[in-house]
Amino acid sequence: MNPELEETFYADFITSSPTTGAAVDADSTPTCEVFEDATDTSILAPTVTKRSGKTGNYRVPLACTTANGFEAGKSYNVVVSATVSSVAAKAVLLTFQIRTNGPDDLAASILTRATPAQVQTELGTYGALKPTTAGRTLDVTTTGEAGVDLDNTVGTLAKGTDITGFNDIAAGAAMTLTAAYDSAKTAAPVGAAMTLTAPYDPAKTAMQAGTAVALTAAYDAAKTAAQAGNAMTLTAAYDAAKTAATQASVDTIDDFLDTEIAAIKAKTDQLVFTGGKVDANATLSLVAADLNAIADAILKRDWTLLSGEAVYSLLNAARMLRNVWTTTGGTLTVRKEDGTTSAWSRTLATDPTAQPIVGAS
Prior knowledge:
Immunoglobulin-like; three-stranded antiparallel beta sheet
């Protein structure tokens, strides 16, 4: 056997009884080693597998790959080891060499029938594809198709009118359809010509010669994209519902401004101006209604909304009249509005002979 490099094949062996010679299973799964030429260290230890339902039958996979250390032209010995009925034994399963030629030794077969010069002549005459320059190759897809890359073509492509290159369409050149108009396949009828008014320049943008862009002043690259003379035209009818501001919204804003300006004027009318400036020393004259409003605000003020009062303040004095107060151990304590927190306290002077106050009439 002479397998090819990168080929995998299987080899079988049978274990037998050392006393009767009958096929029996080994005490445990046998092992296998592969040795290359005179190298005493195995390069591979493939896994031995027992064939299902077969007494004493075992198989070994031999993957003759470069990754496993196999080389073309080298010889290899496959040695198996097995213990049967407590007797350990070894045997050379097979010897093989990795062949150096291709599938079916095609190259060797050709060379035995013709000289190298004859082979080269035959391939040059009958080869379906051959490069003009030696060593050139053809790209082929994984499914076997070969295509033409238009970027790599040289010369002219003739179909109707010759087209030389793809970037050399001169000004005024017409591209004409050479077959009947087919509405399902093209948008231009036979004979329709697409004409450029200047040579095609692939370095330009998609807007080529013939597109009208009128500038009434010299182009200035530092300016924005909209140059002199460019017109912005609405492509649909004016829609009042889409404008930024309607008359109703303007009226609403106007009414709001009137209200705010009137409120500001009411305040500024109370100021005294001297020489166009507010007079900080001017006295404020209050009418009876203003004085009554101030008094009402003081009398009706919710004490629970006040904080930071001084110890000797009108608020603390009035708390004795309205809030909770207690006397404990000779001390009078007046509570704040929550009925718990102390507002102020005093030590009481007592006289056991004094007459108690029980009311006022």
